[in-house]
Protein: tRNA-2-methylthio-N(6)-dimethylallyladenosine synthase
Organism: Flavobacterium terrigena
Amino acid sequence: MEEKVIEESKQGTSMVLETKKENQKKLFIESYGCQMNFADSEVVASILANEGYNTTQVLEEADLVLVNTCSIRDKAEVTVRKRLQMYNAVKRDINPKMKVGVLGCMAERLKEKFLDEEKIVDMVVGPDAYKDIPNLLKEVEDGRDAINVILSREETYADISPVRLSSNGITAFVSITRGCDNMCTFCVVPFTRGRERSREPESIVEEIADLWSKGFKEVTLLGQNVDSYLWYGGGLKKDFEKASEMQKATSVDFAQLLDRCATQFPKMRFRFSTSNPQDMHIEVIEVMAKHHNICNYIHLPVQSGSTRILKEMNRQHTREEYMTLVDNIYRIIPDITLSQDIIAGFPTETEEDHQDTLSLLEYVRYDFGFMFSYSERPGTLAARKMEDDVPEEVKKRRLNEIIEVQQRIALERTKRFIGQTVEVLVEKDSKRSDKQWSGRNSQSTVVVFPKENYKPGDFVMVKISDCTSGTLIGEAVGYSEIMN
Ligand code: 5AD
Ligand code: SF4
Protein backbone atom coordinates (compact mmCIF):
# COMPACT_ATOMS: atom_id res chain seq x y z
CA MET A 1 0.00 0.00 0.00
CA GLU A 2 1.26 3.38 -0.93
CA GLU A 3 0.83 6.62 0.80
CA LYS A 4 1.35 10.15 -0.11
CA VAL A 5 4.15 12.06 1.38
CA ILE A 6 3.64 13.13 4.95
CA GLU A 7 5.22 16.52 5.40
CA GLU A 8 6.30 17.07 9.00
CA SER A 9 6.07 20.86 8.71
CA LYS A 10 2.39 20.69 7.74
CA GLN A 11 1.22 18.37 10.52
CA GLY A 12 -1.53 19.87 12.59
CA THR A 13 -2.02 22.88 10.36
CA SER A 14 -5.36 24.47 11.02
CA MET A 15 -7.00 25.75 7.92
CA VAL A 16 -8.97 28.83 7.06
CA LEU A 17 -11.41 29.53 4.31
CA GLU A 18 -12.49 32.92 3.05
CA THR A 19 -15.53 34.09 4.94
CA LYS A 20 -19.11 33.68 3.74
CA LYS A 21 -20.91 36.69 5.20
CA GLU A 22 -24.16 34.95 6.03
CA ASN A 23 -22.41 32.15 7.96
CA GLN A 24 -22.71 32.54 11.73
CA LYS A 25 -21.04 29.43 13.14
CA LYS A 26 -17.33 28.86 13.52
CA LEU A 27 -15.39 25.77 12.49
CA PHE A 28 -11.84 25.01 13.60
CA ILE A 29 -10.43 22.23 11.41
CA GLU A 30 -7.01 20.72 11.90
CA SER A 31 -5.34 18.08 9.71
CA TYR A 32 -2.75 15.38 10.22
CA GLY A 33 -1.29 12.77 7.89
CA CYS A 34 -0.94 12.77 4.15
CA GLN A 35 -1.96 15.20 1.40
CA MET A 36 -5.06 13.12 0.87
CA ASN A 37 -6.20 14.04 4.36
CA PHE A 38 -5.52 17.72 3.73
CA ALA A 39 -7.52 17.46 0.50
CA ASP A 40 -10.36 15.72 2.39
CA SER A 41 -10.45 18.56 4.93
CA GLU A 42 -11.17 20.89 2.00
CA VAL A 43 -14.13 18.71 1.05
CA VAL A 44 -15.38 18.79 4.64
CA ALA A 45 -15.01 22.58 4.90
CA SER A 46 -16.94 22.91 1.66
CA ILE A 47 -19.80 20.76 3.01
CA LEU A 48 -19.87 22.77 6.24
CA ALA A 49 -19.78 26.12 4.43
CA ASN A 50 -23.27 25.18 3.22
CA GLU A 51 -24.31 24.43 6.80
CA GLY A 52 -23.54 27.91 8.10
CA TYR A 53 -19.92 27.46 9.15
CA ASN A 54 -16.97 29.74 8.49
CA THR A 55 -13.50 28.58 9.48
CA THR A 56 -11.50 30.15 12.29
CA GLN A 57 -7.96 29.77 13.55
CA VAL A 58 -8.94 30.62 17.10
CA LEU A 59 -9.71 27.34 18.83
CA GLU A 60 -11.42 28.97 21.84
CA GLU A 61 -14.13 30.64 19.76
CA ALA A 62 -15.04 27.55 17.70
CA ASP A 63 -18.54 26.04 17.77
CA LEU A 64 -17.19 22.93 16.11
CA VAL A 65 -13.68 21.52 16.27
CA LEU A 66 -12.75 18.83 13.78
CA VAL A 67 -9.50 16.94 13.66
CA ASN A 68 -8.69 14.97 10.55
CA THR A 69 -6.54 12.13 11.83
CA CYS A 70 -3.89 9.70 10.63
CA SER A 71 -3.19 6.14 11.76
CA ILE A 72 -0.14 5.34 9.68
CA ARG A 73 2.26 5.10 12.61
CA ASP A 74 1.71 5.03 16.34
CA LYS A 75 3.34 8.44 16.69
CA ALA A 76 0.63 10.05 14.53
CA GLU A 77 -2.10 8.64 16.79
CA VAL A 78 -0.32 9.74 19.97
CA THR A 79 -0.13 13.31 18.66
CA VAL A 80 -3.84 13.38 17.87
CA ARG A 81 -4.77 12.00 21.30
CA LYS A 82 -2.82 14.83 22.93
CA ARG A 83 -4.67 17.34 20.77
CA LEU A 84 -8.01 15.82 21.79
CA GLN A 85 -7.11 16.29 25.45
CA MET A 86 -6.29 19.89 24.67
CA TYR A 87 -9.65 20.47 22.95
CA ASN A 88 -11.40 18.93 25.90
CA ALA A 89 -9.62 21.20 28.34
CA VAL A 90 -10.82 24.19 26.30
CA LYS A 91 -14.32 22.76 26.21
CA ARG A 92 -14.35 22.22 29.98
CA ASP A 93 -12.80 25.52 31.03
CA ILE A 94 -13.55 28.07 28.33
CA ASN A 95 -16.20 27.07 25.80
CA PRO A 96 -18.61 24.38 27.11
CA LYS A 97 -20.80 24.60 24.01
CA MET A 98 -17.97 23.57 21.73
CA LYS A 99 -18.44 20.24 19.93
CA VAL A 100 -15.53 18.02 18.97
CA GLY A 101 -15.40 15.61 16.03
CA VAL A 102 -12.82 13.11 14.87
CA LEU A 103 -12.46 12.56 11.12
CA GLY A 104 -10.27 10.38 8.96
CA CYS A 105 -8.24 7.26 9.51
CA MET A 106 -8.31 7.09 13.32
CA ALA A 107 -12.08 7.55 13.25
CA GLU A 108 -12.42 4.40 11.23
CA ARG A 109 -9.89 2.49 13.30
CA LEU A 110 -11.10 3.43 16.76
CA LYS A 111 -14.82 3.94 16.11
CA GLU A 112 -16.89 3.75 19.29
CA LYS A 113 -13.86 3.82 21.52
CA PHE A 114 -13.76 7.60 21.25
CA LEU A 115 -17.43 7.97 22.11
CA ASP A 116 -18.01 5.19 24.64
CA GLU A 117 -14.88 4.57 26.59
CA GLU A 118 -13.11 7.84 26.45
CA LYS A 119 -16.05 10.24 26.13
CA ILE A 120 -13.82 12.86 24.64
CA VAL A 121 -15.59 13.44 21.36
CA ASP A 122 -19.14 14.15 20.19
CA MET A 123 -18.83 12.93 16.62
CA VAL A 124 -16.79 10.31 14.75
CA VAL A 125 -16.75 10.36 10.95
CA GLY A 126 -14.79 7.99 8.71
CA PRO A 127 -13.19 9.01 5.38
CA ASP A 128 -16.15 7.94 3.24
CA ALA A 129 -18.91 9.50 5.36
CA TYR A 130 -18.26 13.22 5.13
CA LYS A 131 -21.49 13.91 3.26
CA ASP A 132 -23.32 12.62 6.31
CA ILE A 133 -21.82 15.33 8.55
CA PRO A 134 -24.91 17.63 8.34
CA ASN A 135 -27.10 14.78 9.66
CA LEU A 136 -24.58 13.81 12.29
CA LEU A 137 -24.44 17.41 13.50
CA LYS A 138 -28.21 17.31 14.07
CA GLU A 139 -27.75 14.22 16.21
CA VAL A 140 -25.11 16.05 18.20
CA GLU A 141 -27.36 19.08 18.63
CA ASP A 142 -30.06 16.80 20.00
CA GLY A 143 -27.58 15.59 22.57
CA ARG A 144 -26.81 12.25 20.98
CA ASP A 145 -23.39 10.90 20.08
CA ALA A 146 -22.98 10.68 16.35
CA ILE A 147 -20.97 8.16 14.40
CA ASN A 148 -20.62 7.08 10.79
CA VAL A 149 -17.55 5.10 9.82
CA ILE A 150 -19.10 3.10 7.01
CA LEU A 151 -16.67 2.61 4.15
CA SER A 152 -18.17 3.05 0.72
CA ARG A 153 -17.70 1.23 -2.56
CA GLU A 154 -18.49 4.34 -4.62
CA GLU A 155 -17.79 7.53 -2.72
CA THR A 156 -15.21 9.75 -4.45
CA TYR A 157 -16.75 13.15 -3.56
CA ALA A 158 -16.80 13.83 -7.30
CA ASP A 159 -19.78 16.16 -6.92
CA ILE A 160 -18.26 18.34 -4.23
CA SER A 161 -16.08 21.17 -5.31
CA PRO A 162 -13.60 21.53 -2.49
CA VAL A 163 -12.85 24.95 -1.05
CA ARG A 164 -9.12 25.65 -1.03
CA LEU A 165 -8.01 26.04 2.56
CA SER A 166 -4.91 28.13 3.34
CA SER A 167 -4.02 27.98 -0.33
CA ASN A 168 -1.26 29.94 -2.04
CA GLY A 169 -3.59 30.30 -5.04
CA ILE A 170 -0.98 28.69 -7.31
CA THR A 171 -0.76 24.98 -6.48
CA ALA A 172 -3.64 22.65 -5.61
CA PHE A 173 -4.38 18.99 -5.03
CA VAL A 174 -7.07 17.07 -6.88
CA SER A 175 -8.07 13.59 -5.66
CA ILE A 176 -8.43 10.95 -8.36
CA THR A 177 -8.62 7.69 -6.43
CA ARG A 178 -9.55 6.68 -2.89
CA GLY A 179 -8.64 3.60 -0.90
CA CYS A 180 -6.13 0.90 -1.68
CA ASP A 181 -6.28 -2.78 -2.59
CA ASN A 182 -2.64 -3.70 -2.30
CA MET A 183 -2.67 -5.04 1.25
CA CYS A 184 0.94 -4.40 2.15
CA THR A 185 1.32 -6.28 5.39
CA PHE A 186 2.61 -3.28 7.42
CA CYS A 187 -0.10 -0.85 6.34
CA VAL A 188 -3.31 0.15 8.06
CA VAL A 189 -4.70 2.15 5.13
CA PRO A 190 -6.72 -0.59 3.38
CA PHE A 191 -8.60 -0.93 6.69
CA THR A 192 -9.03 2.78 7.36
CA ARG A 193 -9.79 3.95 3.83
CA GLY A 194 -11.31 0.89 2.27
CA ARG A 195 -11.28 -0.55 -1.21
CA GLU A 196 -9.82 1.21 -4.17
CA ARG A 197 -12.13 3.23 -6.43
CA SER A 198 -11.50 5.83 -9.10
CA ARG A 199 -13.17 9.15 -9.69
CA GLU A 200 -14.94 9.96 -12.93
CA PRO A 201 -12.56 11.67 -15.39
CA GLU A 202 -15.11 14.37 -16.31
CA SER A 203 -15.34 15.59 -12.74
CA ILE A 204 -11.53 15.60 -12.44
CA VAL A 205 -11.22 17.68 -15.61
CA GLU A 206 -13.96 20.03 -14.42
CA GLU A 207 -12.20 20.60 -11.14
CA ILE A 208 -8.95 21.36 -12.96
CA ALA A 209 -10.75 23.75 -15.33
CA ASP A 210 -12.19 25.55 -12.31
CA LEU A 211 -8.73 25.82 -10.73
CA TRP A 212 -7.30 27.14 -14.00
CA SER A 213 -10.01 29.80 -14.21
CA LYS A 214 -9.10 30.89 -10.67
CA GLY A 215 -5.44 31.34 -11.60
CA PHE A 216 -3.94 28.09 -10.30
CA LYS A 217 -0.86 26.93 -12.23
CA GLU A 218 -0.05 23.51 -10.82
CA VAL A 219 -2.18 20.50 -9.97
CA THR A 220 -1.07 17.39 -8.11
CA LEU A 221 -3.28 14.40 -8.88
CA LEU A 222 -3.69 12.53 -5.64
CA GLY A 223 -4.45 9.00 -4.61
CA GLN A 224 -3.13 6.24 -2.38
CA ASN A 225 -2.00 4.55 -5.58
CA VAL A 226 -2.51 6.81 -8.61
CA ASP A 227 -1.02 4.46 -11.22
CA SER A 228 -3.77 2.04 -10.45
CA TYR A 229 -6.41 4.58 -11.56
CA LEU A 230 -9.08 2.92 -13.69
CA TRP A 231 -12.43 4.40 -14.66
CA TYR A 232 -14.97 2.17 -16.38
CA GLY A 233 -18.20 3.83 -15.36
CA GLY A 234 -17.85 3.51 -11.60
CA GLY A 235 -17.31 0.69 -9.17
CA LEU A 236 -14.37 -0.89 -7.44
CA LYS A 237 -11.07 -1.50 -9.16
CA LYS A 238 -11.26 -5.16 -8.20
CA ASP A 239 -14.59 -5.56 -10.04
CA PHE A 240 -13.19 -4.42 -13.41
CA GLU A 241 -13.10 -8.01 -14.67
CA LYS A 242 -16.88 -8.16 -14.32
CA ALA A 243 -17.40 -5.01 -16.43
CA SER A 244 -19.14 -5.23 -19.81
CA GLU A 245 -17.17 -5.26 -23.08
CA MET A 246 -18.37 -1.73 -23.74
CA GLN A 247 -17.22 -0.53 -20.33
CA LYS A 248 -13.84 -2.17 -20.85
CA ALA A 249 -13.43 -0.67 -24.32
CA THR A 250 -14.14 2.86 -23.06
CA SER A 251 -12.23 2.60 -19.80
CA VAL A 252 -9.64 5.21 -18.84
CA ASP A 253 -6.39 4.27 -17.11
CA PHE A 254 -3.87 6.53 -15.40
CA ALA A 255 -1.66 7.06 -18.47
CA GLN A 256 -4.74 8.13 -20.46
CA LEU A 257 -6.01 10.41 -17.70
CA LEU A 258 -2.62 12.08 -17.38
CA ASP A 259 -2.35 12.48 -21.14
CA ARG A 260 -5.80 14.05 -21.28
CA CYS A 261 -5.08 16.49 -18.44
CA ALA A 262 -1.73 17.57 -19.91
CA THR A 263 -3.20 17.99 -23.40
CA GLN A 264 -6.31 19.85 -22.33
CA PHE A 265 -4.44 22.24 -20.00
CA PRO A 266 -1.12 22.83 -21.77
CA LYS A 267 -0.13 25.72 -19.51
CA MET A 268 -1.00 24.01 -16.25
CA ARG A 269 1.79 22.01 -14.66
CA PHE A 270 0.95 18.50 -13.42
CA ARG A 271 2.36 16.30 -10.69
CA PHE A 272 0.99 13.12 -9.18
CA SER A 273 1.40 11.11 -6.01
CA THR A 274 1.80 8.33 -4.94
CA SER A 275 3.15 5.74 -7.36
CA ASN A 276 3.34 2.10 -6.44
CA PRO A 277 6.16 0.26 -8.26
CA GLN A 278 3.99 -2.73 -9.07
CA ASP A 279 1.32 -0.57 -10.71
CA MET A 280 3.61 1.98 -12.40
CA HIS A 281 3.66 1.10 -16.09
CA ILE A 282 5.91 2.23 -18.87
CA GLU A 283 2.95 3.97 -20.58
CA VAL A 284 2.86 6.48 -17.74
CA ILE A 285 6.57 7.26 -18.18
CA GLU A 286 6.03 7.67 -21.92
CA VAL A 287 3.18 10.12 -21.35
CA MET A 288 5.43 12.03 -18.95
CA ALA A 289 8.18 12.18 -21.56
CA LYS A 290 5.72 13.42 -24.18
CA HIS A 291 4.44 16.44 -22.21
CA HIS A 292 6.58 19.31 -21.05
CA ASN A 293 3.93 20.24 -18.49
CA ILE A 294 4.11 16.94 -16.61
CA CYS A 295 6.83 17.29 -14.01
CA ASN A 296 9.91 15.07 -14.10
CA TYR A 297 9.37 13.71 -10.66
CA ILE A 298 8.09 10.40 -9.32
CA HIS A 299 7.60 9.48 -5.70
CA LEU A 300 8.27 5.75 -5.92
CA PRO A 301 8.29 4.18 -2.45
CA VAL A 302 10.32 1.00 -2.20
CA GLN A 303 10.07 0.27 1.57
CA SER A 304 13.02 -2.17 1.51
CA GLY A 305 15.87 -3.21 -0.76
CA SER A 306 15.66 -6.87 0.19
CA THR A 307 13.59 -9.20 -1.96
CA ARG A 308 12.88 -11.40 1.03
CA ILE A 309 11.52 -8.47 3.08
CA LEU A 310 9.57 -7.14 0.09
CA LYS A 311 7.88 -10.53 -0.07
CA GLU A 312 7.08 -10.43 3.66
CA MET A 313 5.62 -6.96 3.05
CA ASN A 314 3.52 -8.33 0.18
CA ARG A 315 4.96 -5.74 -2.18
CA GLN A 316 4.48 -7.83 -5.37
CA HIS A 317 7.90 -7.02 -6.81
CA THR A 318 11.50 -8.03 -6.23
CA ARG A 319 14.54 -5.85 -5.75
CA GLU A 320 15.59 -6.64 -9.31
CA GLU A 321 12.19 -5.78 -10.80
CA TYR A 322 12.28 -2.45 -9.00
CA MET A 323 15.78 -1.81 -10.38
CA THR A 324 14.60 -2.61 -13.90
CA LEU A 325 11.71 -0.17 -13.50
CA VAL A 326 14.14 2.50 -12.32
CA ASP A 327 16.50 1.74 -15.26
CA ASN A 328 13.60 2.19 -17.66
CA ILE A 329 12.52 5.45 -16.06
CA TYR A 330 16.05 6.91 -16.25
CA ARG A 331 16.38 5.68 -19.83
CA ILE A 332 13.17 7.36 -21.00
CA ILE A 333 13.54 10.51 -18.86
CA PRO A 334 17.24 10.88 -17.95
CA ASP A 335 16.60 14.11 -16.09
CA ILE A 336 14.04 12.69 -13.70
CA THR A 337 14.00 12.91 -9.92
CA LEU A 338 12.93 9.93 -7.86
CA SER A 339 12.07 9.89 -4.17
CA GLN A 340 11.42 7.01 -1.80
CA ASP A 341 9.70 5.83 1.35
CA ILE A 342 11.65 3.26 3.34
CA ILE A 343 10.79 1.36 6.50
CA ALA A 344 13.68 0.27 8.74
CA GLY A 345 13.31 -2.75 10.99
CA PHE A 346 10.36 -4.59 9.51
CA PRO A 347 9.85 -7.93 11.38
CA THR A 348 12.60 -10.50 10.64
CA GLU A 349 14.84 -7.90 8.94
CA THR A 350 18.48 -9.03 9.22
CA GLU A 351 21.69 -7.03 8.87
CA GLU A 352 21.98 -8.47 5.38
CA ASP A 353 18.48 -7.25 4.43
CA HIS A 354 19.42 -3.84 5.80
CA GLN A 355 22.61 -3.81 3.68
CA ASP A 356 20.40 -4.56 0.66
CA THR A 357 18.42 -1.41 1.42
CA LEU A 358 21.59 0.69 1.69
CA SER A 359 22.95 -0.67 -1.59
CA LEU A 360 19.61 -0.03 -3.33
CA LEU A 361 19.86 3.62 -2.27
CA GLU A 362 23.29 3.78 -3.92
CA TYR A 363 21.89 2.13 -7.03
CA VAL A 364 18.80 4.29 -7.51
CA ARG A 365 20.23 7.59 -6.27
CA TYR A 366 17.00 9.17 -5.07
CA ASP A 367 16.96 12.96 -4.75
CA PHE A 368 15.10 12.69 -1.48
CA GLY A 369 13.21 10.32 0.72
CA PHE A 370 10.94 9.74 3.68
CA MET A 371 12.34 7.19 6.09
CA PHE A 372 10.63 5.61 9.06
CA SER A 373 11.24 2.89 11.61
CA TYR A 374 8.67 0.13 11.62
CA SER A 375 5.64 0.75 13.83
CA GLU A 376 3.30 -2.20 14.31
CA ARG A 377 -0.29 -1.30 13.43
CA PRO A 378 -3.11 -3.28 15.03
CA GLY A 379 -5.19 -5.29 12.57
CA THR A 380 -2.58 -5.44 9.80
CA LEU A 381 -1.34 -8.76 8.51
CA ALA A 382 2.13 -8.17 9.93
CA ALA A 383 0.66 -7.48 13.37
CA ARG A 384 -1.39 -10.66 13.22
CA LYS A 385 1.21 -12.98 11.75
CA MET A 386 4.63 -11.61 12.63
CA GLU A 387 6.45 -10.73 15.78
CA ASP A 388 7.79 -7.15 15.97
CA ASP A 389 11.20 -8.68 16.64
CA VAL A 390 13.75 -6.06 15.64
CA PRO A 391 14.80 -4.26 18.86
CA GLU A 392 14.05 -0.51 18.97
CA GLU A 393 17.72 0.46 19.18
CA VAL A 394 18.52 -1.66 16.11
CA LYS A 395 15.65 -0.06 14.17
CA LYS A 396 16.90 3.35 15.17
CA ARG A 397 20.51 2.61 14.19
CA ARG A 398 19.47 1.20 10.80
CA LEU A 399 17.18 4.15 10.20
CA ASN A 400 20.03 6.55 10.93
CA GLU A 401 22.33 4.70 8.54
CA ILE A 402 19.67 4.91 5.82
CA ILE A 403 19.14 8.62 6.43
CA GLU A 404 22.88 9.27 6.33
CA VAL A 405 23.34 7.57 2.95
CA GLN A 406 20.24 9.30 1.55
CA GLN A 407 21.45 12.73 2.69
CA ARG A 408 24.85 12.27 1.08
CA ILE A 409 23.26 11.19 -2.20
CA ALA A 410 20.71 14.02 -2.01
CA LEU A 411 23.46 16.63 -1.89
CA GLU A 412 25.29 14.97 -4.80
CA ARG A 413 22.08 14.83 -6.81
CA THR A 414 21.07 18.42 -6.07
CA LYS A 415 24.50 19.64 -7.19
CA ARG A 416 23.81 18.36 -10.70
CA PHE A 417 21.64 21.44 -11.31
CA ILE A 418 24.50 23.89 -10.71
CA GLY A 419 25.21 25.68 -13.98
CA GLN A 420 21.86 24.59 -15.47
CA THR A 421 18.94 26.90 -16.24
CA VAL A 422 15.72 25.45 -14.85
CA GLU A 423 12.03 26.32 -15.16
CA VAL A 424 10.56 27.44 -11.84
CA LEU A 425 6.94 28.08 -10.91
CA VAL A 426 7.02 30.93 -8.40
CA GLU A 427 4.95 30.08 -5.31
CA LYS A 428 5.79 32.38 -2.41
CA ASP A 429 8.40 34.38 -0.49
CA SER A 430 11.50 32.39 0.33
CA LYS A 431 11.74 31.35 3.98
CA ARG A 432 15.01 33.20 4.46
CA SER A 433 14.28 36.54 2.78
CA ASP A 434 11.28 38.48 1.49
CA LYS A 435 13.50 39.82 -1.30
CA GLN A 436 13.66 36.33 -2.81
CA TRP A 437 11.02 34.16 -4.42
CA SER A 438 10.68 30.46 -3.69
CA GLY A 439 9.28 27.92 -6.13
CA ARG A 440 10.06 24.49 -7.48
CA ASN A 441 11.55 23.20 -10.68
CA SER A 442 10.07 20.33 -12.65
CA GLN A 443 12.00 17.84 -10.51
CA SER A 444 10.34 19.28 -7.40
CA THR A 445 13.55 20.75 -5.96
CA VAL A 446 13.01 24.08 -4.19
CA VAL A 447 14.61 27.03 -6.00
CA VAL A 448 15.16 30.52 -4.54
CA PHE A 449 16.13 33.63 -6.51
CA PRO A 450 15.94 37.47 -6.29
CA LYS A 451 12.40 38.72 -6.98
CA GLU A 452 13.03 41.46 -9.57
CA ASN A 453 9.65 42.03 -11.30
CA TYR A 454 8.48 38.43 -11.26
CA LYS A 455 5.41 37.41 -9.31
CA PRO A 456 3.80 34.29 -7.86
CA GLY A 457 2.27 32.15 -10.61
CA ASP A 458 4.99 33.08 -13.14
CA PHE A 459 7.06 30.39 -14.80
CA VAL A 460 10.59 31.76 -14.70
CA MET A 461 13.87 30.44 -16.12
CA VAL A 462 16.45 30.48 -13.33
CA LYS A 463 20.18 29.96 -13.76
CA ILE A 464 21.45 27.92 -10.82
CA SER A 465 24.73 29.00 -9.22
CA ASP A 466 24.75 27.27 -5.84
CA CYS A 467 22.85 24.84 -3.63
CA THR A 468 22.35 23.33 -0.20
CA SER A 469 21.26 19.68 0.10
CA GLY A 470 17.62 20.57 -0.57
CA THR A 471 17.55 24.05 -2.11
CA LEU A 472 18.86 25.51 -5.37
CA ILE A 473 20.04 29.11 -5.45
CA GLY A 474 20.09 31.15 -8.65
CA GLU A 475 19.08 34.19 -10.67
CA ALA A 476 16.25 34.70 -13.14
CA VAL A 477 17.17 34.98 -16.80
CA GLY A 478 13.64 35.56 -18.19
CA TYR A 479 10.18 34.06 -18.48
CA SER A 480 9.68 30.46 -19.58
CA GLU A 481 8.19 29.83 -23.03
CA ILE A 482 5.15 28.32 -21.31
CA MET A 483 4.18 31.95 -20.45
CA ASN A 484 3.77 32.93 -24.12
N1 5AD B 1 5.45 1.57 10.13
C1 5AD B 1 6.34 2.46 9.62
N2 5AD B 1 6.14 3.12 8.49
C2 5AD B 1 5.00 2.86 7.80
N3 5AD B 1 4.54 3.33 6.65
C3 5AD B 1 3.34 2.78 6.40
N4 5AD B 1 3.01 1.94 7.38
C4 5AD B 1 4.05 1.96 8.27
C5 5AD B 1 4.29 1.29 9.49
N5 5AD B 1 3.44 0.40 9.98
C6 5AD B 1 5.31 4.25 5.82
C7 5AD B 1 5.52 3.66 4.42
C8 5AD B 1 4.59 4.46 3.59
C9 5AD B 1 4.66 5.80 4.30
C10 5AD B 1 3.61 6.77 4.00
O1 5AD B 1 4.59 5.45 5.64
O2 5AD B 1 6.87 3.90 4.06
O3 5AD B 1 4.97 4.51 2.23
FE1 SF4 C 1 -3.19 9.35 4.97
FE2 SF4 C 1 -4.74 7.81 6.49
FE3 SF4 C 1 -2.50 6.89 5.58
FE4 SF4 C 1 -2.45 8.69 7.47
S1 SF4 C 1 -3.25 6.62 7.61
S2 SF4 C 1 -1.16 8.66 5.71
S3 SF4 C 1 -4.17 9.94 6.84
S4 SF4 C 1 -4.25 7.47 4.38
